[in-house]
Amino acid sequence: MNDDLLAVAVAQPATSARDVAGNAVRHAEAVEAAGAAGARVVVFPELSVTGYELGAPPVDPDDPRLDVLAEACARTGTVALVGAPVRSAPRGAAGVHIAILRIEDGIREVVYRKQFLGGNEPRHCIPGPGPALVDVDGWRVGLGICKDTGQPRHIAAMVRLDLDLYVAGLVHRPEELAEQDARGFVLARACGSPVAFASFSGRTGDVFSETAGTSTVWSADGTVLARAGDRPGEVVSARVSRPRR
Predict the structure, then answer these.
(1) How many CB atoms lie within 10 A of CB 37?
(2) 8 Å CB contact between 13 and 144
(3) Among 57, 128, 143, 193, fewest CB within 10 Å belongs to which?
(4) Helix-then-strand count for the chain, H and E
(5) Within 13 Å and on the Cβ side, how many CA atoms surround 167?
(6) DSSP single-letter state for residue 143
């Protein structure tokens, strides 16, 4: 195994509003497809297991409805980074966070809570405490969710973390695709690391009759390595190189 290469996939599964069990099955199918292509990490969009439903009940990482996804990760040897609403940490302010779950063989945990909220999100959710990364096979993987990716404070924090890879789950309208692409390019160049954006595709929530999809993986210099279309159900992957510093 080459420790300087990591195969990362971005997935945009079709989702049904608040149908955690059904959405978990479609996430598992995406993981199986990504794993068959050799992916080690599979990134999913913002709030992917519930849809962009700001009033959806929080999802616990150990929720049995996610078992089918955990089993797919175990079979394929993949790490799934999944979007979900979660309860606040025991010592934090009471409320719900927009979060990323890490699911793999033997691990099911909340790894990041969205820091910069937008639109109607502050009416339903509270911001997370700050930047975060996860370790995958010795790779330092920085985490973000949608609005985070365009915030100078967030980008500066990611730069300080000396990342090997940055990933984020998004939901954008089709007319925001140029902004989505610009953010991916800026993050790659600022962090000096590859970037993977998983962007929602299809209708979701009350405010997104259409979404952009076009999930993308960029190299550290901002070159597009893999790019999905705008249809739900697409999964694309690329092997990215560890930055040399």
Answers:
(1) 14
(2) no
(3) 57
(4) 5, 12
(5) 34
(6) E
Q: Which amino acid is at 188?
A: A
pLDDT digits over 205-237, tens only?
888 999 999 999 999 999 999 999 999 999 999
Cα gap 60→16, rounded to integer Å = 18
Share of the chain above pLDDT 90, in %: 94
State the pLDDT at residue 94.
73
What are the pLDDT digits (tens) for 167-208?
Answer: 999 999 999 999 999 999 999 999 999 999 999 999 998 889
Buried b (16+ CB within 10 A) or exposed e, 155-180: bebbbebebbbbbbbbbbeeeebeeb
What's the CA gap between 170 and 182, in Å, rounded?
14
Is the pTM above the cut of 0.90? yes
pLDDT confidence of residue 93: 60
